[in-house]
Inverse folding.
């Protein structure tokens, strides 16, 4: 599958970078969104946990068409997935940041980029999930699990919402 314009959020490292590197040869224009410099594609510096970052991305795309939006960003609480993690020790700022990055940012980004996605003949939206968003996952990380469960809800709701949009074949 090839794309003209593809956006990868969280493209500066980890899975986001690996996905961006893999897809770069398959598209004419790869937009790499991250807070720190992305080594692939056309870099858009933006902190998507803040509304201003989402607006920056939307302004760069402007009236262009977007064929695929891949949200690969994610974070978790301090000491998550270690024996040092204790929910009661998590700061309010830590909890808010996890929810902002993992749940609020993808919602805002999709909403802001829907006009550009609608200009595509066959748009795609892909979110990076996690096992912590699955039923009966034994993780203890409260904010991370809540945000990943919430992201599953976003996917289900967007599927229903976008099915009525002409030429929008949601594969979320």
């Amino acid at each position: 599958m090839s794309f003209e314009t593809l956006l990868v959020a969280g493209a500066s490292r980890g899975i986001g970078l690996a996905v961006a590197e893999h897809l770069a040869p398959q598209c004419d224009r790869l937009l790499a969104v991250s807070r720190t410099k992305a080594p692939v594609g056309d870099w858009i510096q933006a902190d998507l946990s803040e509304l201003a970052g989402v607006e920056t991305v939307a302004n760069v795309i402007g009236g262009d068409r977007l064929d695929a939006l891949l949200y690969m960003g994610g974070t978790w609480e301090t000491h998550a997935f270690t024996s040092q993690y204790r929910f009661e020790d998590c700061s309010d700022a830590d909890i808010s940041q996890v929810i902002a990055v993992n749940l609020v940012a993808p919602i805002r980004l999709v909403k802001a980029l829907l006009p550009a996605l609608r200009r595509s003949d066959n748009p795609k939206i892909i979110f990076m999930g996690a096992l912590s968003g699955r039923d009966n996952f034994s993780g203890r990380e409260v904010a991370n699990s809540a945000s990943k469960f919430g992201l599953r809800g976003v996917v289900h709701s967007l599927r229903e919402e976008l099915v009525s949009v002409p030429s929008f074949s949601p594969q979320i």
About this structure: Residues 3-162 form a domain with the Rossmann fold fold (CATH 3.40.50.720). Residues 92-118 form the longest helix (27 residues). The beta strands are 3-9, 27-34, 42-45, 68-71, 124-127. The radius of gyration is 16 Å.
